[in-house]
Amino acid sequence: MARMRRNVPKRRGSPGTYRLGKRMEEQELREKRREIMQEFIYYAPTEVVFGKDAEKKTAEEVKKWGGNRVLLVYGGGSVKRSGLLDRIEAELERAGIAFKEWGGVKPNPRLSFAQAGVEAAVSFGADFILAVGGGSSIDTAKGIAHGTANPGTALWDIWTQKVPLTKSLPVGVVLTIAAAGSEMSDSAVLTNEAIGRKQGLSTDFNRVKFAIMNPELTYTLPKYQVTCGIVDIMMHTMERYFGLGEGTPVTDRIAEGLLKSVVEAGKVADQDPCNYEARANLMWAGSLSHNDLTHAGRSFFMQVHQLEHELSGMYPRIAHGAGLSALWPSWARYVCPSAVERFAQFAVRVWNVDMDFENPMKTALAGIQATEDFFASLDMPITLRQLEVSGDVLDEMAEKCTFFGKRTLPGLKELGKADILAIYQAAMGK
Questions:
Q1: In DSSP terms, which residues pair with 110 in a beta bridge?
Q2: Average pLDDT, whole number, for the chain?
Q3: Rounded to two decimals, what is the model's pTM?
Q4: What phi and psi values does residue 129 have, to the nearest 5 degrees?
Q5: What is the pLDDT of residues 225-247, one digit of tens each?
Q6: What span, in angstroms and rounded, lies between the C-alpha atoms of 150 and 338?
């Protein structure tokens, strides 16, 4: 969005003055930036099988990608109680595919469980890892795949890039939660519970071969998981939207349209859990928000995610989406002065806030408030106090977020320890 002129006439006055102001407003929101779009490579090789009963094609997909001995990675008992795991296993048996269950994945997936999964996969002779669940199961499956392909190498050494990752096993996904987008991303996150450290790994080896998506599989999710997922989906796009870059009107519109669609579908799904259209749009949005489509031509670092990783690393009971919703408003208000026009554009295009050309900051802050209000309407936390976080740990979290002084967080405003601590403190609320 181009620099906003401060001499645009106010909307009060003659009809002619109003029309002039309106035309200038529209021009401002359409005008190209003088800077050009950044170079980028877009790579999204995952095959998506989407629709009702899509899970019936699981065995076919596993075979297609060379799987004969499959480690099934999943979380709690929901996939068993629903009968989904039994149906998948029956399909595998009919196709002559051997399998071994590896259940028990927890939210904020643990390194120790993934490492034990590596040992189970190696012992079984697995040549394919199949995740049945959401982001935690998928990220665990990715970790197991990396470790199994590199037996004898500690998984944490791979995760911290102490040992370069040069090969992995193929991974497939049967998705049951619209949230993390890990089914189409190059990212995965594990928590080393021994040191209270949550860390992500981005590599093309994290790209899964296929993702099976049946929106009906999300009908029985608890409300809290659904709303945490809605926040996570939005955050994956907003983190990219508020990255660095200019001259990206197409990417901007894709991101803005996705966000508006998630808000609309989220409101419906919150009230009507079995609405197929809403669930389908959330599931597809979750994938698109994290497959790099919404930042083409822009750079990003996901500052809020980095802040949240320290939070849920210290408090594993805190769901990732809840941590993000509690941190984003304070982060946004802190960095907003460094990108007023960007936040104002977000307010106008996503939340339909009227543009105040004499006071763009007012518009920008109104967009932040609208986002916060939406999170609150879903009964998501908007302060750390609501998550029962102690103020005594904030300095430690800030220190860990800088890797003990070894890094700052690049972005619209580069964040050092003092900045990170200020955001944490503001996020505590009153």
A1: 191
A2: 91
A3: 0.86
A4: -115, 125
A5: 999 999 999 999 999 999 998 88
A6: 44
Classify residue 245 as exposed, middle or buried by CB count within 10 Å of its CB (0-12, 13-18, 19+): buried
| Lookup result for tokens 């995952």 | 46
**Structural domain boundaries of the chain?**
47-218, 223-427
CATH 1.10.3720.10 fits 223-427, yes or no: no
Cα 65 from Cα 68, distance rounded (Å): 9
Burial 34-50 (b: 16+ CB within 10 A, else e): eeebbeeeeeeebebbe
pLDDT (0 to 100) of residue 20: 52
Question: Average pLDDT in the 326-348 region?
Answer: 97
Q: What is the pLDDT of residue 10?
A: 40
DSSP states of 394-426 as a string? HHHHHHHHTTTTT--B-SSS-B-HHHHHHHHHH
Strands 187-192 and 171-175: unpaired
- Assign domain 47-218 to its CATH architecture: 3-Layer(aba) Sandwich (3.40)
pLDDT one-digit tens code per residue, 162-213:
999 999 999 999 999 999 999 999 999 999 999 888 899 999 999 999 999 9
> CA torsion 62→50→187→65, rounded to 10°?
20
Per the rule left: phi > 0, alpha: psi between -120 and 50, beta: everything else, 245 is left
